[in-house]
Amino acid sequence: MEFDQWFNAQLNARPIDPIRLAEPVPVADLPTPALLLDEARFEANLARMALWSKTTGIALRPHSKMHKCPVIAHRQLALGAEGICCAKVSEAEVMQRAGIESILITSPVVDQRTITRVSELARQNAQLIVVVDHPEAVMRLEAALAQTRTTLKILIDIDPGLGRTGIAPNEALLALLQMIDRDCPHLMFLGLQTYAGHCMHIPEFDKRKSKYQRALAAGAEARNVVERAGHSVQLMSGGGTGSIDFEAELGILNEIQAGSYAFMDIEYRDIESNNGPTFEDFSVALTVLVTLISQPKPRTVTVDAGFKSLASDKMPPQFKDVDGLNYYWGGDEHGIVALDNPSRTLQLGDKLELLTPHCDPTVNLHDYYYVVRDGYVQELWPISTRGCSQ
Ligand SMILES: Cc1ncc(COP(=O)(O)O)c(C=O)c1O
Fold first, then answer.
1. Which one of 46, 177, 244, 272 is CB 3.0 to 4.6 Å from 205, fit for a cystine?
2. Is any ligand 1 atom within 6 A of the Cβ of residue 36?
3. Ligand 1 pocket test: which of 49, 60, 63, 269 has the largest number of ligand atoms within 8 Å of its C-beta?
């Protein structure tokens, strides 16, 4: 089998539709670790963000790298989202197969094989948008599109000080813009992306706001550069869950790419908001159900979820609805839990829910969401773009 044939086949084999069980299953009967999605909280989060978007007039293009699930993307679109973001081309390929067309790929695409795939996606989908930040990659993209006589919308990525992707709003931007204008008839300049991810989780509200404001000045300056060069900027995309409290006031973006708001996690819950010491605008809808499988010592118990079920790049997970339990990483498959006067009695086989430290990489460790309503699961939603990192 040819490599590309295999690559496409494995993407096409991914499930994209929800699975409905004939009979609902009580949460306590699920095999663990299981990724649970509290449907009522999740729906409230989506509705809250849809209202925010409507009220502020700032379009919402949720980042699907967080949930990786076309079922969820369709729900976001049904509530008025402008489209979705994908981090990677393979994510976009799966989402497009699931019937989603308004897709923005938020990372630059450079290698030839991936560029060819982008041009194939663009051939099938006139709504596709891709960010660019380098003349060489732009010329490769132009050449691939010219071969299939396809046009593609692009955003130039502006670095707001994160230092990850993008360019500064200076002569480099002007030169790139002029090159696109002059040499790239198949690329349609639509606007700018400026994503200040380094500001999103700053716990103190005022500090977050002022750092974000400074970061977005790069976006505003970039828009000036582009407009002075005689181009209009239709789309200014960026932002995330941690910036919604100030986007409207700043007035720089006309589209936000928030992702985590749909599920939330410990890291986001613990930032200060406009209204109080924690970020209660959205509630935590995502948990990992675990089983108490051993009690090696009188004051510790062991649960069956470690690095393979919970992202470990941030703080340790926390138990939902039980106090006095402190989770410590116990390796790939285990968590060791110190008992500090727990608020309920525990016994072998008990099922407990853990709040996840960081939702995006946690989701990427699971195949399905177990969608919970009133303590029962009747639907499973596939995490279709799990592992789509290419
Ligand atoms: C480019 C980009 N846009 C948007 C987001 C979504 O941000 P959040 O999950 O903080 O809402 C991310 C997340 O890392 C991102 O990398």
1. 272
2. no
3. 63
Examine residue 387 and state whether it is found in any structural domain, yes or no.
Answer: no
Give residue-wise pLDDT tens across range 54-67: 999 999 999 999 99
Judge whether 45 and 52 are in contact, CB under 8 Å: no
Report the separation in Å between the CA atom of 231 and the middle of ligand 1, taken as the mean of its atom positions. 27
> pLDDT for 244-262, tens place per residue?
999 999 999 999 999 999 9
- E-only strand ranges, the chain: 19-26, 34-38, 59-60, 84-86, 103-105, 129-132, 152-157, 187-194, 235-238, 255-256, 286-297, 300-303, 318-319, 325-329, 335-339, 351-355, 368-373, 376-382
Residue 270 domain-assigned? no
107 and 124: one domain? yes
Ligand 1 atom nearest residue 257's Cα: 4
**What is residue 348's DSSP assignment?**
T
| Whether residue 49 is found in the same domain as residue 182 | yes
Question: Does one domain contain both 151 and 292?
Answer: no
Instruction: Compute φ and ψ for 207, nearest 5 degrees.
Output: -65, -45
For residue range 95-128, what is the model confidence (pLDDT) as tens digits? 999 999 999 999 999 999 999 999 999 999 999 9
The domain in which residue 349 lies consists of 3-36+281-382
